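Sample A.
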Amino acid sequence: MIAASDAYRMRGPDFAHLVIDPHIIYSSDASASQIPENLDNYAHWLMGPYSLDGQTFYSITHSEWYACLLDNDCSADGYASQGNSWVASSNAFVSHDGGASWQLNTAGGTHIAFDPGYHWTGTLAFQDTIWAYADNHTGTFQPTRVIREGAYFYCIAFYIHRDFTQINPSQGVYGAPVDATGYVLLRTADITSAAGWQAWTGGSTFQPVANAQFQTFSPQQNGSPLSAAPPQIIYDTTAKQYILIFTLFGGSNPVYYMTTASLATPSWSDAVTIGGTAGLVTDPAGNIVGFNDGNYTSIIDASSPGYNFEFTGGSPMLFYSTFPANYGGNNIARDLYRVQLSITYR
């Protein structure tokens, strides 16, 4: 899928022969764009569809809403007002026709899977339009594909929480400090419903997301945390390990990976660079080497059994997107590339 608020898909017999299907599969502009905050139905990016039968697909989303919508001033300064008042959540979607069209999944009585972002309506923060002066985005961003272990379906998202009690507009303090950030592990026993998602709180303990107890974790290398961008996950059937890949925010970096034998009781290894990625030329003009969060790295193995690309047997591909404006193209279009990876087992 081409993940966007208006979504399309690429189709073909294999990953070497994909073409863009011109038929839109979901339009936030046409089907969402509801401004009231409690509806959680403004702009959706379909992330990691999952199927049990190859016909009906379920997906959680990266969903965006902006407090500036309530004040009708999101366009006053370009993207800044949206970005500064951005709340990211995840919602449930369903397709009954193999992914050709999508709609909100309300089978469990709600389409809201997890929404731990700050709620602005009726607050001092909204009254004082603090997004006009400082970055205050919150929530869960860009969840990975859904991957099954035992009786549960898991994903990992990037999380930002802020302490809005610390703002003081009368004293010129408009930025709520971040008091928790990193990756969060989430799971559900029923992928067909939005209800029932749980958040990892440490060890082997998970609590309902409504409890707002999200234990964050960050990739570590030599005892130091890395400023890791949103990740992607796959299960290696040979090593019997889950592999989480990611790159860093900004700059020019390698792609990293870390592993754990279980998601039910996660214990992550130190982060290790994927060989060759730090020096890989990632744009056609040869001007950019390495990766950052704008490349949206992903990992897929074409030989994965089933419908969901959860697995690799040792020969996955690394996918990434680029900004064509860096080499004379249309920045909105983006370009998608893939490189073959190989795994050495020790």
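Sample B, a different protein:
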Amino acid sequence: MPFSSRLFFAQPNLFDRHSHYYGEALGWKSVCAARGIAARFYIHAKAGPGIVLELDARPLFPYQTDSQLDHDPLSQSLANFVKGSESFATCYEQFERDGIGGDDAVIVTYSSERDLYGAARWLARRPPDRRPTFVFIFHVPDFSWTLDAAGENLSGDFSRWRFAMRELKAVLPSEKALLLATSATLANALTGLLEHPCEIGCSPKFYIDDAVLDPIAANLPRVHLRMAGEFRPERGADLVTAVIRRVAMQRPGTIFALQVPDEAVARHVSQELAAIAAQGSRCYVDYGNAAHADYQARLKQSDVVFMPYQAHRYMFRASGVFAEATAFGIVTVVPDRTWMAEQLAAGLGVGTVFHDWSVDAITNACLGALAQHPSLVQRAHSGKAEWRRRNSTATMLEKILVRLPK
């Protein structure tokens, strides 16, 4: 790729500073600047003025990648696909007004089938020599997809995905349609069902310098066991308080931390956990959306980060929490048959694995990680530099640049 070309980043999910989307945008901006590559950012229409100024971004997209635009259960999937795709196609017209050309590339950082079809709709309206390369980065599958116990046979509804890819191929040469996925399982699935190569990328994270994080972390309590990230049922929100009570009973004095969405949930969770004070334990319950630096500083103040996630939701997808915890040399607790467990089995990260999604199994895995922490943390720290080398926006950018048409 000639470096006179430009990268146009499509980030419809980015509208505030607390998310993985924001941290990765900082990473993309930093690595493009370091490489002397002109980068333009197009983000959610409701993004705050601070983010718009910081990224020199255009607030453009009215919907996020997975927004529900239709609530009729009989037509929802199709309506969301059609409405979302056409919305993205309309938004890409701003790229045209900003002078995008055939030598430039659009990077869709969190892609879905809507993005494939939206790009196809927009490209069909442009002269062939003015059609840029499109790079689609896939983080999550369609959650109707399943793998058999052997991890070999994929089932689910693939119709929208196949249709979108066929439409894209009709208006864009194969070498200008680049697909990457953040896990091998997802890359392999997409390669097969789309009949187009999907390369294995990495987890494109941006790690804030210790010089910035350490002063923040110094004012935070040290905790033994933390659940980080969004507090949702698929991530174990329904089990976590029972796990914490059980760990506190068997390991008195353990200090915990949780992140929840708002003050009302924080009060409810704190009431459920009030009894652990009798074991000399406590749980810090943070609520609201932490800024990226605050979030990473909290991770650094953790001995163990536990992820009581439902395995089927992470069979295809990478975990941002796991990626960042591993990058800081933190011991983790993860579910079996997930991307996270695969990383541990490959020696990339250190932690324990639970095999059943139950309070007993998760508790035992947490207790094992805490008991073995002194030895495990040495290995975790020794591997964090290699993890960062493999999993960063810089590494993902290199993977993209070598694949772009010359």
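Observation for Sample B: The longest helix spans residues 373-390.
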